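Think of the structure tokens as a kind of shorthand, similar to the way a musician reads notation: each symbol stands for something richer, in this case the local conformation of the backbone. In the example below we present two proteins back to back. Begin with the first one, reading the sequence and then the tokens, and try to describe in your own words what changes along the chain.
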Amino acid sequence: MKKFLIVVLVLIAVGAISFFVADEALPEGNAGPDAEALSEKVLDAVGYEAWEKIPFVAWSFRDAHHYVWDKEKHVARVKWDDYEAAIDLNTISGRASKAGVALEGAELDEAVQTAWAYFCNDSFWLNAPAKIKDSGTTRKIVIVEDGSQQLLVQYESGGVTPGDAYLWKLDENYLPTSYKMWVSIIPVGGVEASWEDWVEKEGAMISTSHKMGPLEIPIGNLKVGRSPEDFDLAKDFFTSTQEK
């Protein structure tokens, strides 16, 4: 019931945003060396190389989904409501429990799929700028009305909703300030979400606050580490996840 109410509230908020926002067509933009050069400036601004060197990161999404992510092995512990899952993000497999009771069969499969879908969405809000050159993406420069350059990134594959596109607005140092979205979950194109309250973690920049109309999307409990023990997990916590 709690999960259902959260979904309903989010849909109401998205509906309210859609009512006040005119539907925008996806801009054309220009691909090529200039777009690639702009994307490199964005990656430099957010400390992409430093981000890639961080082995573990933990965070909470809207204080509802809680994560510990082993970035090197690409496995994650995901907690929501009274569920806990430890999943291999490459194979979308693993183990899960509800109220401390291990799940099996169809219930396990459903929990693992839910954890994976949550992770895909919530890790994007954690650090989408680090994904602008992922495999399956295209990048274009868009010149907007004030003459400034914005970066259009489209995801042709990967995640839960391939085909989604994002137009990044950048400050004078190429740090993102917001993006407009053309995504399957929102019925109108061009809805804008802010990227603000940036914090630095071992050289990587992370935005910890997003606003999309009346909807706030905080990134909380942000922490980086070197091993599962840094997050009060057993050293071999993720090992069995990859063995299953």
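Once you have a description of the first chain, move to the second and do the same.
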Amino acid sequence: MLTLYLARHGETEENVAQILQGHLPGCLTPKGREQADGLCLQLQKSVQEKIDVLLSSDLQRCLDTAAPVSRYLDMPIEKCRLLRERDWGSLTGAHIPELKGREFPADVESVEQMFSRAAQFLEYISREYDGKCVLAIGHGLFDRVIQACFDGCTIADIPRMGNAEIRKLVIPSDYKNGLSGIKNDVEKADN
């Protein structure tokens, strides 16, 4: 069995400005930095298990959120590209209110592609960290895709995540999602 805590990054300037961030690095606001510091208190209050592994999306807003957690837990951050937010392609950087009712161009990562990546992530951590407790700091939409993939439902069935919100999944040791040939897409972060 694997215990997975999913946490969303702290508030960014782009969140406030309603900018579609996708793979942009993102810059935490002062409130976002407070939220990142607050994750340590949330972990102290809400998480009974000892965290064994700290994973983070390799995008800067997540690494900045993970930094105080890394210091609090006294463990390194392992960067994981599989945790990246949806790739919005040519829509990256667009003002969200201007996109309502607009069809997505072909270069936007599809829902199917996101689910495939979420399945790869779940299979990877199930294989590499069985019996462990993992904290993964990622992104609101993609964290919901991971939950939907695990629960076998749609993204719409999973409530939106607030900045620096934590959710828990318990993944059985025999978890298999039918994908094979998953590469190791995790590396140690310099922090």
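Compare your description with these statements about the second chain. The longest strand covers residues 2-8.
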